[in-house]
């Protein structure tokens, strides 16, 4: 009986010892696994950064090339446009200027004519008024009568009388 | 025939006055009253010559012919007499002048006679010769 109990105790202790060893080994392996995972993760991050950097550089490079191509295309189109209208442009511009000049000249002429007419009418009226006042005031009774007699003579000559 | 009667009126206004005076003289013939002082002495003296034919005189005065004249201003009595004398020498002793004042004519006159018209005013001359 005692032997059996001792055997059980020894067995238990041995099992306990073995379990302890297994736990330690598991800890080591877990630690190793963690380190390995961290390493893989770092490598993945580095790789991702490298890819991103490469992609950025590639994009910049492409953009630069695209800009160059666009510039060339633009220069080419401008050159072609200039070539197309180069000869006609001065003539068209000149004709347009001439048309505008003629139109402006006509408008100015019309305006001047209108103003001249207005001024002439006003001047006429002014002269008429001044003449009336000057002559009317300048005539005494004798001159007035003489003008009436002269008017009668004219009427006779004109066969009104 | 009525030369002395015609001498009593030179203008259309004079005629109206003279007709009233003739009427007063006619009325007075049927009354004992003397001719009123409203009848001018000269008129009374002329009408006395025609006392048997006052209606005829009145009719003759009424039938005197008119010549219309537009002038720039009123004339003096002397001026009226001179103008009317000229007109009568030209047109006849039975012509009366109808003066109408139009200051805008400035001077001279416009003349209307028997359907004819002429503008001989200074205004017209200014318009013609002065271009205004």
Automatic annotation (TrEMBL), chain B:
User: What's one GO-annotated cellular component?
Assistant: membrane
* A GO MF term: proton-transporting ATP synthase activity, rotational mechanism
| Membrane found in the keyword field | yes
Where does it live in the cell?
Membrane
- Asked if the Swiss-Prot or TrEMBL record annotates the protein with the keyword Transport, the reply is yes
Judging by the UniProt lineage, the source's domain of life is Bacteria
Sorted alphabetically, which keywords does the UniProt record give?
A: ATP synthesis, Hydrogen ion transport, Ion transport, Membrane, Transport
Question: Which Pfam families does UniProt cross-reference here?
Answer: OSCP
| InterPro entries, per the entry | ATPase_OSCP/dsu (IPR000711)
Instruction: Report the protein name in the record.
Output: Uncharacterized protein
Biological source species: Candidatus Amesbacteria bacterium GW2011_GWA2_47_11b
């Amino acid at each position: 009986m005692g032997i059996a109990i001792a055997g059980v105790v020894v067995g238990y202790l041995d099992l306990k010892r073995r379990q302890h060893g297994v736990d330690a080994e598991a800890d080591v392996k877990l630690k190793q696994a963690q380190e390995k995972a961290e390493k893989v993760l770092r490598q993945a991050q580095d790789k991702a950064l490298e890819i991103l950097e490469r992609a950025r550089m590639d994009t910049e490079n492409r953009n630069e090339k695209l800009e160059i191509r666009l510039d060339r295309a633009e220069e080419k189109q401008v050159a072609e446009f200039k070539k197309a209208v180069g000869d006609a442009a001065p003539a068209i511009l000149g004709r347009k200027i001439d048309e505008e000049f003629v139109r402006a000249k006509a408008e100015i002429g019309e305006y001047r004519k209108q103003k001249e007419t207005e001024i002439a009418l006003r001047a006429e009226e002014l002269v008429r008024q001044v003449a009336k006042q000057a002559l009317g005031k300048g005539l005494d009774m004798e001159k007035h009568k003489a003008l009436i007699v002269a008017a009668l003579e004219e009427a006779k000559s004109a066969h009104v009388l | 025939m009525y030369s002395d009667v015609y001498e009593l009126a030179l203008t259309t206004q004079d005629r109206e006055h003279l007709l009233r005076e003739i009427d007063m003289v006619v009325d007075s013939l049927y009354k004992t009253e003397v001719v009123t002082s409203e009848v001018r002495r000269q008129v009374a003296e002329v009408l006395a010559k025609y006392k048997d034919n006052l209606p005829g005189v009145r009719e003759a005065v009424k039938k005197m012919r008119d010549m219309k004249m537009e002038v720039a201003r009123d004339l003096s009595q002397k001026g009226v007499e001179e103008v009317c004398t000229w007109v009568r020498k030209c047109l006849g002793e039975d012509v009366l002048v109808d003066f109408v004042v139009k200051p805008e004519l400035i001077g001279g006159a416009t003349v209307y006679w028997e359907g004819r018209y002429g503008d001989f005013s200074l205004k017209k001359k200014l318009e013609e010769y002065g271009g205004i």
